[in-house]
Structure formats: C-alpha cells, structure tokens
C-alpha cells in the first residue's frame, strides 16, 4: 500500500502546480542560453545537480520518521533563509502550500497530522511568537514533500529519489511547452538521464542541512530574473 502512495505523490494528476514553473528555463531560453535539445539536456543536468546539493538535504531531514512538528518548522525556516532569490522562494511556497492542501483530502490516514501542518503555516501570518513552533512555518515544497513521505511511512531514500524525479520531469515538461523539444524527445532525455539522476542521489543522499549548498549560481540568477521578462508562460 505504501508504494502506491509513492506513485501518487509523483503522479502528474496530483495538481500541486509543479507544471507552472520552469526552474529558470524560460529565462535561460529568452537569454539565448538554451535553444535546442543539447542545451536543454545540459540545463536539466544542472538543475538535477543543484536540486541534489541544495534541496535533497532538506527532503532527507524532513522525511525522517523521528521528525517532530518543531523540527520541520525549523527546517522550513532554514530553507527559507537558504533560498535567497525571491522567485525560487515564491515557487517553493506555492507548490508546498498546494501539496499540503491536497494531502489533507487525498490521504485521510494522516489527516490530523496534515491539519496540524496547515495550522502551523497559517500561524505564520499572525503576530510573532517566541518559540519556533508558535511562530509557524512558511510551507516550502521540499520540506512538505519530505514530511508527507515520512508521515505515510515511506523511507527517506525513496522520498529523495522521488524529489529528484519530479525535478527532472518538471524541467523537461517545461522544455516541451516552450517548444524547445518535442514530447518524444523529452521522454528520451528523461530516460537517458535516469542513470545520472541516480548518481546524483548517491552523491547527495542522506546529508544533513548543514551540507546543503548551491552548485549553479547562474541558474539561481536566471530564475531570479524571471519576473523581469517582458512576456512569460511560467510563474518561475
């Protein structure tokens, strides 16, 4: 039963808003840095590596069975500080909040825990409190994603692998809609990069958040400039 929950959490039918974001690909395209299948492939590899180094440690920590409410609020605050560009931060919050709203309806076996998470996020909008738990959480995607895997009894490595899968899938989906590659070519690229994604997982899996770092500052810069584009298809 647990494996079915894994497939559902990464299924495109779950409307978390991931397809509304290009992870900086649209900005890179308009800047002339990405323009064909080869450059799309390079961009996807860069995105995977960056997701592994920067976000996987947060997914790992949030997905542990021993993670408490206060733990994930602190993790969420740390990730909020790490995501320095406002576009990436807004995209992460949008997807995280959408995922937690869906989880309360889709997974009745963890309804109470999810309601508690939502209450923590809503508390963030109120006046400041003294403790981390009282201050509430922002609701970043990597933290919510990992936490849901943990609550559903899924192991941390599966959560990390699933997160990388989503990162690769969403970038290639964006490339398709930007008409950089066709659907068949995107599927081929996804298959070709499967072994690379696994290598990224092996390289960055099970690290603590103190080891999280940015590997692609240009990617961060491009995504941060997204809202300056004259015309745009994606939110980020």
From TrEMBL:
<dbReference type="InterPro" id="IPR038277">
    <property type="entry name" value="UreF_sf"/>
</dbReference>
<keyword id="KW-0996">Nickel insertion</keyword>
<comment type="similarity">
    <text>Belongs to the UreF family.</text>
</comment>
<dbReference type="InterPro" id="IPR002639">
    <property type="entry name" value="UreF"/>
</dbReference>
<protein>
    <recommendedName>
        <fullName>Urease accessory protein UreF</fullName>
    </recommendedName>
</protein>
<dbReference type="Pfam" id="PF01730">
    <property type="entry name" value="UreF"/>
</dbReference>
<keyword id="KW-0143">Chaperone</keyword>
